[in-house]
Design a protein that fits this description.
By secondary structure, the chain is α/β, with parallel strands linked by helices. 31% of the residues lie in helices and 24% in strands. A ten-stranded mixed sheet has the order 1-4-3-5-6-2-11-12-17-18, sandwiched between helices.
């Protein structure tokens, strides 16, 4: 069974494959509005309003067929013209070469929400999984919302909601699809479901990871090592590499979390996170500009006149001030 929205004649041609990841990732925190900026960023990047083909997978949902119908309506409302959603609800269907062929011809691949553990268990290592990775390498855009976004990292997080005292309940940490590197782990519905404490605890136990908490109806559009935020909310990033003390082991036994020097930042819409450096790109750019300015510093000096006198006092003082500043530097 295939749900399809087709406003074009024929299939889009398969793009030339490359050996590097030339595509983009659109990571949505869930609950995206059809006409909102978060989902719109995916449609813009893959050209879906101009005939670019989207192939969706609703495997993470408890009702893949019902979810497929809902997403077809959402994409139609958003202006997409060519969407196909094969109903991939079992592990054996992840080996279906017909679905692989659809993915090979897609400009955009969409992973819906639900259960990221089920999604990875059903699709991971299959022909469909390999086709998604190859599509990303050749330049296709991969978008995930909620569980679909969480599954795109190397390490996924599920369960583990803390109780009212901040004590961690059962949590699942396991391998994901690995399209987003940088040791990142994604938590979705972040502000709306108050998941900051959960991410703190997981990062305290795994300080090498970069935690990304994405709000609802908010997307991080990743190209290379830069993640640009669009939509209604923000993305919280948590870096545990500088933590000086934590009681992560005690948390596993039901004790509340204690830690110090955890690094946390918030990236609002319109700003960009450098995933490689784990810092706001605007700050890194300011540092680069400052270093470049220091390297190009010019010192003005007065020229001797015919009588050997220096230029009048104003210019002389300016030159002296610049020279003094250079010496101090």
């Amino acid at each position: 069974m295939i749900a399809e929205l087709n406003g074009t004649n024929g299939d889009s041609p398969t793009r030339r494959r490359t050996d590097r990841h030339a595509g983009k990732l659109v990571l949505i925190g869930g609950a995206c509005e059809p006409e909102g900026a978060a989902l719109g960023s995916f449609l813009d990047v893959c050209g879906a309003r101009d005939g670019g083909k989207i192939v969706g997978l609703t495997t993470a949902s408890a009702d893949p067929a019902g979810s497929a119908r809902s997403w077809l309506e959402a994409f139609r409302a958003a202006g997409a013209t060519h969407v196909e959603i094969p109903i991939l609800d079992r592990r054996d269907r992840a080996q279906d070469r017909r679905i692989v062929a659809m993915i090979e011809q897609a400009e955009g691949i969409f992973l819906g929400g639900g259960d990221q553990v089920h999604l990875v268990a059903t699709v991971g290592g299959s022909r469909v999984y390999r086709a998604i990775r190859e599509a990303y390498a050749r330049g296709a855009t991969i978008c995930g919302t909620s569980a679909g976004a969480a599954a795109l990292t190397e390490t996924i997080l599920a369960g583990g909601e803390p109780d009212e005292y901040g004590q961690m309940q059962a949590v699942h940490i396991g391998p994901g699809f690995g399209l987003l590197g940088f040791r990142a782990m994604i938590d979705t519905h972040f502000t709306q479901r108050r998941r900051l404490q959960r991410l703190f605890m997981v990062i305290a136990q795994n300080p090498e990871l970069l935690g990304l908490g994405i709000d609802e109806d908010t997307a991080m559009v990743v190209e290379g090592h830069l993640g640009h935020v669009v939509g209604r909310g923000s993305v919280t990033f948590v870096d545990g590499r500088g933590v000086r003390f934590d009681n992560a082991d005690e948390c596993r036994e039901g004790h509340p979390l204690t830690l110090s020097y955890l690094r946390v930042g918030i990236v609002g819409a319109g700003y960009t996170l450098n995933l490689r450096e784990r810092e706001l790109e605007v700050l890194l750019q300011a540092r680069r500009d400052e270093a470049r300015g220091q390297g190009e510093l010019q010192v003005l000096r007065s020229d001797d006149g015919p009588s050997g006198d220096a230029r009048p006092g104003g210019e002389q003082r300016a030159a002296d001030d610049l020279a003094e500043a250079a010496n101090r530097g």
